[in-house]
Structure formats: structure tokens, C-alpha cells
Amino acid sequence: MAQLFLHEELYRGREALERLGRVKLIVCGAGALGSLLVDNLVRQGVRHLTVIDRDRVEAHNVGTQLYGQGEVGAFKVEALRALCFRAAGIELEAIAKTLDERSAPKLLREADIVIDTFDNSAARQIVTEQCHAKQLAGLHLGLNADYGEVHWNEGYRVPQDVVLHDPCAYPLARNLIGLVVAIGSEAIVRQVLSGVQENYSVTLRDLKINSE
């Protein structure tokens, strides 16, 4: 098992990998950001993960999310659990339920860090309020056109939903997803190892990453 994370251990040190292996993360959303973020984290040595998402994989998800054509029709969290086990032997907890005001206190109660990758304002607001109420460390990852952000709960403002005739027909570049996932992963690792919470924004067209 140690060989799976050899390069990460050589870079960060054994103690850092042990701390990452103990932290308990809850990821809200298993779409473009959530699925790729979870995959990234388990390959960095994170071992205790819960993922919450009620949706199933659709054909249009294949281009921007971790899933392949073979997972179309499956619950995203179940597909993600299988993919992570095959990749790194990690058995994450998959919760195919809606996160709402009634379920949030129970679903988010045992986390060191709650990570919000939802794509709607109502769900983001619930995560934000629950993190405030329970004094949980919360990190929000979001995308809009060529803009992405990684922002901790303190000072975070929930963005308004973009109204579309077809909720699936919105511009989304895979490279922007990758950038936000990489920045989000590093923000999580730094918070776990040093307690520092750093906020970032990124724009794809001019390829700029800004510290907030």
C-alpha cells in the first residue's frame, strides 16, 4: 500500500501522509468537480471519505466527470466508490441521498472538513449554514464559464443560480475543472497539514490563478 503513494510521500514526508490518512472528509456533490476531486484525494493518501449525491451518471457527464460510458445509469456515488476502490483500494462511504435542511445535520456531523462542489445555490447555502452552525471547516469549489474559485466558508458568498432553458446546456471546459480540482486538493492538504486556509480564484482564458 505504501508504494501507491511513494511519490507523494517523498514530496511531503511520511508524517504528512499519515495525517492525510486520518482526516475525515465529506464531499458534497459527485459531479465534475466532486468526482475528480475525490479521485485526486484518494491518490494522495486520503483514506476516510464520504460522498453525498443523489444523481445518476448521464451520457453528457462522460466528457467532464470521472465516469465512463460503462457507468451511465448508475448512481454517481456508487460508481465513484467502485472507481476509487479499483484505483487505490479505498472504500469510501457512498450516500445516494438529497442533502437538505432536514438531512444536513446528520449527514455532515462527523467531518473534519466538509467540501461543497454542488452546482446549485440552495444546496450550497445549506452546506454554508451547517458549517457555520457546527463550526466545521468548509471549503467551496465552484465554476462559471471560464471562472473558478476555491473558497473557505469564512466570508464565502453563495452565488446565484444561472437560469437556463436546458439545465445541462452550459459551457464548461475540462481544463478549468482540472485547475480548480488541483487548487482545491492543495488547499485541503495545506489545511490538514498546517491549519492554513487559503482562498483562490482562477480564470481559464488568461490562465491566471489569484490568491484571494
Please sum up the structure shown.
37% of the residues lie in helices and 18% in strands.
Task: Explain the overall architecture.
- The chain is of the alpha/beta class and 212 residues long.
- The chain is 37% helix and 18% strand.
- It has an 8-stranded mixed β-sheet with strand order 3-2-1-4-5-6-7-8, with helices on both faces.
- The protein is built from 7 helices and 8 strands; from the N terminus they run ααβαβαβαβαββαββ.
Supply the key terms.
212 residues; alpha/beta; Rossmann fold; 7 helices
Order of helices and strands: HHEHEHEHEHEEHEE
**Which stretches are low in confidence, meaning pLDDT under 50 for 5 or more residues running?**
none
Order of strands across the biggest sheet? Answer: 3-2-1-4-5-6-7-8
Shape-level CATH architecture: 3-Layer(aba) Sandwich
Number of domains: 1
**What proportion of the residues is helical, as a percent range?**
25-40%
How much is the radius of gyration in Å?
A: 16 Å
Tally of strands: 8
Strand content: 15-25%
Q: How many DSSP helices?
A: 7
Distance between the termini: 37 Å
* The first-level CATH class name: Alpha Beta
Task: Please name the CATH topology.
Answer: Rossmann fold
Q: What's the CATH superfamily, by name?
A: NAD(P)-binding Rossmann-like Domain
Sheet with most strands? 8 strands, mixed
Mean pLDDT: 94
Structural class, by secondary structure, is alpha/beta
- Give the overall shape: globular
